[in-house]
Amino acid sequence: MIERTALKYAVENRLRYGEAKIGPVINKVLGEHKHLKAMAREIAKIVEEMIRYVNGLSETELQELAERFGLLERKELRKEEKALPPLPNVEQWRTIVTRFAPNPDFPIHLGNARAAILSHEYARMYKGKFILRFEDTDPRIKRPLVFSYKIVEEDLLWLGVKWDEEYVQSMRMRKYYDIAKKLIELGYAYVDLCRSEAFKKLRNEGKACPHRDLDPSKHMELFEKILEGEFSEGEAVVRLKTDLSHPDPALRDWVMMRIIDVEKHPHPVIGDKYRLWPTYNFAAAVDDHLMGVTHILRGKEHALNTLKQLFIYKYLGWRYPEVVNFGRVGLEGLILSKSWIKSKLRESPDKFMGFDDIRFATISGLRRRGILPETIREIILSLGLSPADARISWVNIAAVNRKNADPIAKRVFVVCEPIKVRVSGVELPKEVEISYHPSRDLGKRIIILTKPELFVPYHDIEKAKPGTIVRLMELFNIEIKHIDKEVVEAVYHSAGLDEARKCGAPIIQWTPCENSLRVEILKAEKLRLRKEYCVAEKSLVEMKSGEVIQMVRLGFGRIDRIKRGRVVVMYTHE
Questions:
Q1: pLDDT tens-digit map of 357-368
Q2: Taking a C-beta distance cutoff of 8 angstroms, is the pair 184, 241 a contact?
Q3: CA distance 150 to 152
Q4: Domain, as residue range, for 396
Q5: Which residue, of 1, 24, 62, 243, has the greatest Cβ tally within 10 A?
Q6: Which of 235, 537, 563 is nearest to 413 (CA)?
Q7: Could you tell me if 367 and 107 are in contact, meaning their C-beta atoms sit under 8 angstroms apart?
Q8: pTM to 2 decimal places
């Protein structure tokens, strides 16, 4: 009875992860037979034997055994996406409109993806509209990068986020000028000619700038002079009149528009066409109204921005959108900070692969590493709109991604730390047909051994003694005769798995020496990028760049590039 239970869970574990592991199987067995916990040591021996047996099965044998246990007959579980809570006051709006408004000063990362995915999901939930808006009105400090616009679009489409309308704020400058003039005419905005330090002192004391209460017509003249180039950067700003007694000085007469020297800091899209630029809060407030945005989903760090923007809506008689603030996202094991990534790429470009470096939590970096879009969506949707800060561990990402990648990833033989094995007494050529997946129809490949020489992992065989029987996965069994640092001498022992099982033979992956491929595996270890040089079966070169694979007994990876018989793989996780 125990043997059968252990066998069933060992098969299930290998089907799910590519190689059965003793820990999870023991837990399953003891969970089903709780009365035997006192015999855990004896049960562990039984489980270990079954693990060894199951890991030595061919893909065909594994599938047959899985069918016998009914493991392949179970209906696939639908991906569980946490149900999102309803948005507030949806009944008060004719059409729900959400937006994602990135600054294209760098590609988006996992934290940005939360706003994008949730905003898109809600727009679709309510059969509304989703807007992509590039907020690129700071060519001096948060300078847009020309390539970022396209990268952001590509990342969003990869995540399954498709927008209904797209806007670029730098192409809408006249609209901001029109609203600014209207606010000036109504007496709600003014041109401030004070030096920055002088205004800061007045603001902190709750006192008005000497220009604040000039007639609106005078401010309109000053505004036109700014547009005509009569003021330089730092000599004049346009401020919104708020409340000089507000307890938070940051809300007192904040800057709506400022002059930027575009000869020194030309905008990458429109060059030096405009000198007067809206600040984030002014441009965002105007656009949310003009674009009909009904619900804004953003991080709680934007709470102050909401208070600033409400002044504009009050003055112009607009209705402010519903705002839902969610918590920050932290990530363990990967670099999430955009400013940190930018500084490192600037200071040490030779140490990193670019914005899509697999050590970074940019969407491009996660994709290059082999994380699937379904994984990111699942994690983001599980966080939902919670106002609590969340920390996502790499272990959690890997677990979700493993579940999603397992059904679609082809299994291939990759041998690291290869050592040559010379087998005598084997009839050649030897041809084996191996399925790419134990339970899915992902095709098959044929591996032909034309010479009695193959590569195996050195760490799998270094402690073997003469007379040890080893099974070469899906091929045949060999008996070790002699081992040194250069070559292993072995003799053909037998063909079947049953013989290997009787001998308690370990089962290892292999690849023919002839026609094997050189593979470079890159592994992210926090800030370190470790390179490992391996060999692999020839079929790997027939796969596509960008394909996620499972390297048998090594883990998941993504083919980064294939060139001249050499393959570079980004290691994803176990």
A1: 999 999 999 999
A2: no
A3: 5
A4: 329-405
A5: 62
A6: 537
A7: no
A8: 0.85
